[in-house]
Amino acid sequence: MTSSDNSSAPSFYAISSSARQLFLLLRCISFAPKAQVQITKEGIRLSAEDSRVMQGLAFLDKSLFSTYNYIPPRKSSHQATNDAGDDLESDDDELDLPPFQISLPALLETLQIFGFSETKDRWSSRDSPYAGGMNGAFPRAGSAAAFDTRVLGMTGVCRLSYSGIGEPLCIILEESGVTTTCKLVTYSPEAPEEIPLRRDRLAQKIIMRSSWLHDAINELSSTSPTRLTITASPTAPYFMLSSSGPLGSATVEFSKDPKLLETFQVNRRSVNTYKYSLIRATTKAMAIASKVSIRCDEQGVLSLQFMIEVEGGGVSFVDFRFVPFLPEEADEEAPDDEGGEESEEYDEDE
Amino acid sequence: MRFKASIHNLIKLTRFVASLSSLGKVAWVRLNDEEVRFTVIPEQGTQVWAVLSIDSIFETYSIQSASPNNTINLEVPLQPLQKALRSAISAVSTNIRLTKKNGIPLLSLTIVTTSYSGNPAGNFNTLPLPTQSQANPTSDAAGNTSAPNVGGEQDFGLAPGDPYREREITIMQDVPVRVLSAATVQGLHEPRCREPDVHILLPPLLQLKSISDHFTRLSSATMKSSVLNGGASTASAMQTSGPGPKLELSANMHGCLRLSISTDALSISSVWRDLANPDLDPSQYEGGEEGLRQHPTARMRMMGGDSEESWAKVRIDGKDWSRVLSVGRMGGRVIACFCHNHALILYVYLPNEDDLAEESVLTYYISSYSV
Amino acid sequence: MTFLSSTLTPDSVNKVHDAIICLAKFSESVYIEAHRHELILSTINTSKSAHASFVLNGGRFFTRYRYSPGISRGRPATDADERPFACRIYNKALLSVFKGRISDPKEKDTAVEKCEIALEDRPDKAECRLVIRMICMHGVVKTYKLTYEPAEAMHALFDDNAVVNRWQIQSRLLREFIDYFGPKTEQLDMYKENGRVTFTSYTEKITDGKEILKQPLQTSVAIDTLEFEDFSVEERLHIAISVKDFKAIVMHADTISTSVSARYSLPSRPLQITYEGDGMLCKYTLMTIGDYRASSTTPAPALSADGRLLTRDGSRMASVPVGAHSASSMPPPQRPASHKYASESFTQRTPRPSPPPPKASLDPESLFVPQDEDAEWDDYQRVDQSEDVLGWDASGDHHGVAMHFSNDERGTNESSQNPPNDSSTMRIAPTQRLSEVRGLFD
């Protein structure tokens, strides 16, 4: 610990043995420049949003950390400065630390400072644009081995600490002979309304392997679409994703085969349209998740919940919510419609 | 004017040229009886002076010039040279010579390679799964029934129809060059710099480069995010085309190296400890041991490791620095000399297979940016 | 009304993908031609100097192939029966449908089980659609409806009778050395001399002073004619095609690992490259030029029939349209019988803008200098003399311009038939002769 804090101990202090794990989970919500951070007793909740029509939430459960030390402020001491913490009065007079915002790209870049997400061998990958040709490409003999990133020990032990309002979020990463200290500036929080999903009035609930949804979403990109239409129906076609663009249209249909859709609860046919690029922004989650739960309420609010298996056998969840286009707008079916202002294209009933 | 040589350490030369190529488009090359010198002086960014011992690269080496000291000066485009060398990676022999075709002077590489790939007379109709035939060349051989024109006089010493028959391919790569007169290169001299305040052996360059690149990206990323949040739109345009973000690199005489940046969104620094501050050779300095005691590095060493004054600091361009560090592929030891707020000089000592051979040294001159 | 319906295996889907990747290197659009027994994918590049086509055999390439033109056109099924249907489609659209379906073991569950291709073209519907259905495991069905426009497919003219030079070689051998040719070079010259074939990639540019250094690398690759399965080419006949085209062809040929044939007559006449495998016939017709730095030993013989077909006014390759949509009154040509289509310039019919005029240096009239070669060399000599800086030691090794040696003697025999002198020193061919090369390093 090189950071010389004031005499007061940090309100929050945690050690993770895998910066990579944190990185992979947080990268799922990397569609926005800033993330809102809420530290709780159970873990750290990071959320991001785009134009109020998409929200993403990653929860870093305290089980992901080897040390998780959180001293919530007492009501008496922080009452004056704390105006966002009064919604959670779980037990006696403890409060959660007020949320704050940080730069999401800065956080992600810092977590991977020791390069675990890099290509395996920088020098030779740059040296051989002829990869595949040249009778077996660049030889990897001799000194190239000295640059294998494995020798650099990507253990990625990572310490997080936060002392309270106005203080930076401090991250310290260590690796053989090098210590990296990063202080992320914390910004005052915004209080965005959560996109409401009416769990009691779900129109559909489908659980499937995430890779299949990933494959389907990728498939539809072939039409360079602006919109994605999701159709669920108790009769065939049961579950269908479709899009269209200047070069044509594409649809992916799923049968009701339980091997394919392990949960399929659809009471009546529903057709909703979303902005394709936003759904596509979840591909990092789709790619690493094992399962996805696709829920949609009667208003058309879509929830994608990804279950991600983490090192050591546990699971983490990353959630996304999307506001649909208004039905009449969706009916217009204008493939290369650039759309007007985003704010006019979704339902703001709530 | 003649120059011809056979290259025996092709990988070394290829990596060397690749390292230079990242910094400049052309190099001035001076060939003489003693050494090969490459000089890269880009319009902006780091300058390189590199001296290679002839034996470390070439096997036979012959030069003949009317210029004084039997010297040939050439201006050589680095990328084409790099590409040409790369095509020799699997060569049996590689020769280089200065020649001239159609009035254009060239460095011409003659590369002889051999290949052992499949049977030239395979019959595609009988191949069961052509797309897999490469992985399974025996099925290829089985399919070989007709061999028109092949199998007659072969001077390869192998049985006709042998699918692993060696075949020879000769490749010529012509790199256009300019021959420079002695007068042109007369003004060329190494940059002069005051004695450094701190010198230190750098940590493994791959690690340093990886972390530096992350810092550069962090700087760009957090700058972009502030743009997204309503900053000036011109800032992003500068990011993409202009020079990269500036990194602060500092070191002291107590074995520490520090890399840091600070942006609106964060401040970050990486610190290496327990690095070596090599001793200077008294015989190289005026006044010997006594003179060395007056050397700036000696004074810096006197200062405590905790005081900020003990650090010599430079500000360098992140992208340029990354290109400099690509010399890591050469696998040499690198000593960095810091002239506080002024310049950074890197000496890259290339390893030699033969201990007795003369050392090859690359010198990088990097100017510090003002704050 | 569907009038083309066909089914492909996953393996064939990959082959279609390989084919359209190759076509994409020539042009951004693809012509699809449906015949009774085959489907043809083809394209022609914007400068009309290269035509590529893939003939997919209905019986062998497809597991099912049915094309019924008469009914679909709403006309009596009489003379129109054998008339092919042709349309044009953006390659990009096809690429995204057929993209990367090479089954990744990790993505086994999303693997394609079969693919159905259908054409729906109804007179009562304004929109034409090419419908491609990928039927995958577990009942996942991916359907694409791609827009196309009716078009007349083009066929390159190639006079089989004029062919005097031919070679045939395993694709793998070509694949081995195409990487050596720099991406920035434009032309690929080939010639045979003394039992070796030399391929040289180069760029024609007027270069002087500083610009010299910007000239792309010139690369020669020499291999023994014994590597060829068939080799019958005039000695020292230089002929050049586009490097880019050649690379595209070789990359594709290597995907089916086959034997590649080239046939041609003379520079400035088309050259044809063909190969086939698994029910797919691949044919490329490429315009050629001579090499300006060397000359053929024989003057160009006049081929009257051929000469008539090759117009000299900028359309480098004459093509004829075929297809059901053709307004042409001529009888539909039989494919793939002969290639003697009536001469009709493609450029007149193309709906796209005319190609830019060919570069002056590409014009065979100005390029191909069979007779007055000495004057050509004189020019270079003058250039040399003016550059005093480049003092040149021409003695010794440069007498290697001698060009007669046999296979057995190569590398040791330096003929003295041409005594070294200034003019012969400068007459170094675009590629170094092997004798010269070896002589230097003995």
Automatic annotation (TrEMBL), chain A:
InterPro entries, A to Z: DNA_clamp_sf, Rad1_Rec1_Rad17
GO biological process assignments: DNA damage checkpoint signaling; DNA repair
Biased composition (Acidic residues): 328-350
SUPFAM superfamilies: DNA clamp
One Pfam match: Rad1
Subcellular location: Nucleus
CDD domains, per database record: PCNA
Stretches the record annotates as Disordered: 327-350
Residue ranges of the TM segments: none
Primary location recorded for the protein, binned into one broad class: nucleus
Any single GO CC term annotated in Swiss-Prot or TrEMBL for this entry: checkpoint clamp complex
Record key words, sorted: DNA damage, DNA repair, Nucleus
Family to which this protein belongs: Belongs to the rad1 family.
PANTHER family named in the record: CELL CYCLE CHECKPOINT PROTEIN RAD1
Descriptive protein name: Rad1-domain-containing protein
Organism: Xylona heveae (strain CBS 132557 / TC161)
UniProtKB/TrEMBL annotation, chain B:
Keyword vocabulary terms for this entry: Nucleus
Pfam families found in the cross-reference section: Hus1
One GO CC annotation: nucleolus
Segments for region (Disordered): 127-162
Domain of life: Eukaryota
GO biological process: double-strand break repair via homologous recombination; meiotic DNA integrity checkpoint signaling; mitotic DNA replication checkpoint signaling; mitotic intra-S DNA damage checkpoint signaling; nucleotide-excision repair; telomere maintenance
Annotated Polar residues bias: 127-148
Keyword RNA-binding applies: no
Subcellular location: Nucleus
Similarity comment: family membership: Belongs to the HUS1 family.
This protein's name: Checkpoint protein
Species annotation: Xylona heveae (strain CBS 132557 / TC161)
UniProtKB/TrEMBL annotation, chain C:
Entry-linked InterPro entries: DNA_clamp_sf, Rad9, Rad9/Ddc1
Biased composition (Basic and acidic residues): 395-412
Top-rank taxon: Eukaryota
Keyword vocabulary terms for this entry: DNA damage
Ranges of biased composition (kind: Polar residues): 413-426
Span of the signal peptide: none
Pfam families associated with the record: Rad9
Region (Disordered): 321-366, 391-442
Entry's Gene Ontology cellular component terms: checkpoint clamp complex
Keyword Membrane set for record: no
Gene Ontology biological-process annotations: cellular response to ionizing radiation; DNA repair; DNA replication checkpoint signaling; mitotic intra-S DNA damage checkpoint signaling
Function: Acts in DNA repair and mutagenesis. Involved in promoting resistance to ionizing radiation and UV light, as well as regulating cell cycle progression after irradiation.
Family to which the UniProt record says this protein belongs: Belongs to the rad9 family.
Protein's name according to its UniProt entry: DNA repair protein rad9
